Amino acid sequence: MSLSGAKILIIDDEPQIRKLLRVTLNAHGYDISEAATGQEGVVQATMIRPDLIVLDLGLPDITGMEVLRQIREWAQMPIIILTALDQEQDKVEALDLGADDYVTKPFGMGELLARMRVALRHTAKTQDEPVLRLGGLVIDLSQRLVELHGEKLKLTPTEYDLLKVLAINAGRVMTHKQLLKQVWGGHQYESDSQYLRVYVGHLRKKIEEDPARPKYILTEPGIGYRFAWQEM
Amino acid sequence: MEQKTTESFIWKPYLITVLFIVLMTIGLRATRDFFDQVNAVLLYLVPVLYSAVRWGRGPAFFTAGIGILAFDFFFVPPVFSFTVSDLRYLISFIVFMSVAGLTAGLASKLRSQIVQARQREASTAALYALSRKITAVSDLEALLAEVVPHISEMLKAQAAVLLPSRVEPMSMEVYPMDAQAWAADEAHVSVAAWVYRHNAIAGRGTKSLREASELYVPLHTDRQVHGVLVISVGDIPLAEMPGLILTAEALSDLVAVAISRVKLASEAKVAQLSAESEKLRTAMLDSLSHELRTPLAAVTGSVTSLLEHESLFTPEDRRELLVTIREGAGRMNRLVGNLLGMVRIESGMLRLNKHWCGVEDIVGVALTQLKDSLQQRVVDVRFDPDLPSVPLDEVLMEQVLINVVSNAVKYSPENSRILIEAGRSGAMLELKVRDEGKGIPAGELQMVFEKFYRGKATSSIPGTGLGLAICKSIVEAHGGRITARSGTGQGTEIVILLPVHMAEGEDGKI
Q1: Which of A106, A124, A142 finishes a domain?
Q2: What's the pLDDT at A23?
Q3: Is the dihedral of CA A187, A191, A197, A198 positive or negative?
Q4: Residue A232: inside a domain, yes or no?
Q5: Helix, strand, or coil (residue B293)
Q6: Do the chains contact at A86 and B395, CB–CB below 8 Å?
Q7: DSSP state for residue B488 in the 8-state scheme
Q8: Which of A32-41, B253-262, B478-487 has the highest mean pLDDT?
Q9: Largest alpha-carbon pair distance within chain B?
Q10: Taking a contact as any Cβ pair under 8 Å apart, which residues of chain A between 81 and 140 contact chain B?
């Protein structure tokens, strides 16, 4: 499946935002459908079977959160949340409910397009590649090896697992909860984000040139972390 | 009921005087050889004087009457008969009666004066006590709650104050609340309303409703009638009402003055408050309209240029206009963010969502956010190698840092340095942002954290005066402190102190 030509469903009650998205996304070669209410959005999602949904959280009839829940009951296509709320709690809730990423209004179009490309790429990827190349960082998943600019890095097992989860999901935001679950597995540390922070700190010291201004592992305040993703 | 009390009241002095006269007569009879009749007649004046002083005019005349009879019967010949043989005795009787009458009159007048003086003294003392009590009270309900029981106690009668209702102009509200039962009665309220409207006393002993068992006194000052004092006087004899009315009027004057004082004080307070909020509103509207219109003007200007004269521009020009639009929109977005933050803080909706965070992390995020607006400032970041985790609301602290660093950019020259330092200082984490800019005069170091305050020397640089005020609220909500250190021409250093440990009652979980 090519990324261009993908079917995108936009669920937003604001005509201006729909128009902006229609024009811009059309120009980038996407095939656009629109829904102005949550109910209509759920119906359209079943009929059109879009490749990706852009969903506004503040809808007039049912909440975006409810739309997300209803769609996630039967479909796994990527959903990107649009929100004017700067309440981090809502974003975290939507992400933990199965949204793939979020963009806060007002957003730069480049940011939205990048999020969409990452989300589409993740679904398009059919088989796992054994080696991830991200900038100067190379991660060999089969051998659990990490190289930075050709030099081998010594990572503890937990650091490696954390880096792996972040890198596999490169470009995509990972909530604290998702990371704790995927790296530590059990529920033991599920509610302790300090643990996570400490390991991210260690990782940054090993892979970042300037840990104070990280280039690989970016903090999403109040939400989680995102591994920076460059187009390759 | 009334009859009985009056009877028993009167009955006693008469019995006593009769006894007195009887005893005296027996004594005088026993010693009649020793006393002249003249002496005896003069001695009979003693009980007259006594009862005049003690009980007043009535008992005095009664004493004089039985005294003269006793004298006539026992001493005037023929003894043991009321017959008088010598007519000259009649003159003695007349003289006796006149002396008795005169002294009784004078004595009883003196007595009533003493009684009045005592009453006056008592009521003056009571008024004084009351006035001292009420000068300290500044709330209307508290005032009435204090005053009404005092009045009740003073007058030994139930009392209540009725004030015109604030809700319904024609109805009256009863104070205190526990007097509702009797004073809220419809008849009372309608009489009180009449008294209020006509500013005239009514009720028992007055011209209107003379026979009623309540007294209604208007509470008036020169300016207006404030309410009505209702006293349930019961069936006190009408003769005693004038004195009571005088006292009640004195009391009501005092209460009226107190009510008017409280009202004026609260009016003054409201006026002051509304003046203050008016000032704030004006400042806010001024800075808002300016702060919103400036970037809006840039956006609108650029967009209309591009729409109407697109062919005139080179690709570089076009790009520059587009960048202007992006900057204008970004500035408006930051302003809206700060305004929302202010509203949230002002309305008490600011809730911290604390996590254990690294300050270096937040500084990193803030610097990434500000990447485009740093404009050739060199940002130098120095962190202690082992900084502790701090319980923070990351999003709000990011806003604090963005505000502080963008101020550093705004008030410093291009190519200057901005230094961000973090280290531990006891139980606090110390975060410092220093620029090489204009600095803040010593007198304004604290005021820059006040809402809408703009430095005098920098008023030409656009801004709302909200940024640092928001920072202060957020930092203080974290239990921290934010201060500014500076001197003119030396740059400014903003110091943020944040507690390293969770406050009590927090568990450090997500």
Answers
A1: A124
A2: 93
A3: negative
A4: no
A5: helix
A6: yes
A7: T
A8: A32-41
A9: 152
A10: 86, 88-89, 106
Q: Say whether the ipTM exceeds 0.95.
A: no
CA-CA distance, B261 to B270, in Å (whole number)? Answer: 14
Indicate yes or no: CB of B337 within 8 angstroms of CB of A86: yes
Number of domains, chain A = 2
Same domain assignment for residues A143 and A162: yes
Cβ–Cβ gap A213/B393 under 8 Å:
no
- Which residue of chain A is at minimal alpha-carbon distance from B384? A212
Interface of B with A in 343-362 (CB under 8 A): 353, 355-358, 360-362
Query: What is the DSSP secondary structure assignment for residue B20, as one 8-state letter?
Result: H
Q: Is A208 helix (H, G, I), strand (E, B) or coil?
A: coil
Computed over every residue of chain B, the mean pLDDT equals 81
Which span out of A10-14, B56-60, B258-262, B349-353 was modeled with the highest average pLDDT?
A10-14
Residue whose pair of structure tokens reads 């790009």 in the numeric block = B319
Across the range B203-227, mean pLDDT stands at 84
Instruction: List, in sequence order, every beta strand (DSSP E) within B172-313.
Output: 172-175, 202-203, 214-220, 225-232
Tell me the DSSP string of B359-406: HHHHHHHHHHHTGGG-TTPEEEEEE-TTPPPEEE-HHHHHHHHHHHHH
Most B CBs within 10 Å: which of A184, A194, A218, as the mutation test of the B interface? Answer: A194
Q: What are B309-327's pLDDT values in tens digits? A: 888 889 999 999 998 898 8
Q: Which domain holds residue A48?
A: 7-124
Q: How far out from the chain centre does Cα A207 lie?
A: 22
Residue A204 — φ and ψ, nearest 5°?
A: -60, -40
Higher pLDDT, B381 or A125: B381
Q: pLDDT by residue (tens digit) across B251-300?
A: 888 888 888 888 888 888 888 877 777 777 777 777 777 778 888 888 99
CA distance readout (Å), A122 to A76, A138, A168, A172, B66: 12, 19, 9, 9, 129
Q: Which superfamily does CATH assign the domain made up of B355-499 to?
A: Histidine kinase-like ATPase, C-terminal domain (3.30.565.10)
Is residue A135 pLDDT above 50, yes or no? yes
The CATH code belonging to domain B138-266 is: 3.30.450.40
Confidence category of residue A127, pLDDT binned at 50, 70, 90: low
Inter-chain CB proximity B509 and A218 less than 8 Å:
no
The C-alpha atoms of residue B191 and residue B211 are separated, in whole angstroms, by 14
DSSP state of B210: T
Count of residues in chain A: 232
Rg (CA), chain B: 45
User: For residues B430 and B461, what is the distance between their CA atoms, to the nearest angstrom?
Assistant: 29
Whole-prediction pTM value?
0.59
Residue A201 inside a domain? The answer is: yes
DSSP state of B503: P
Q: Which is more confidently placed, B88 or A109?
A: A109
Mean pLDDT across the stretch B141-158? 81
Task: Measure A214 CA to nearest chain B CA, in Å.
Answer: 7
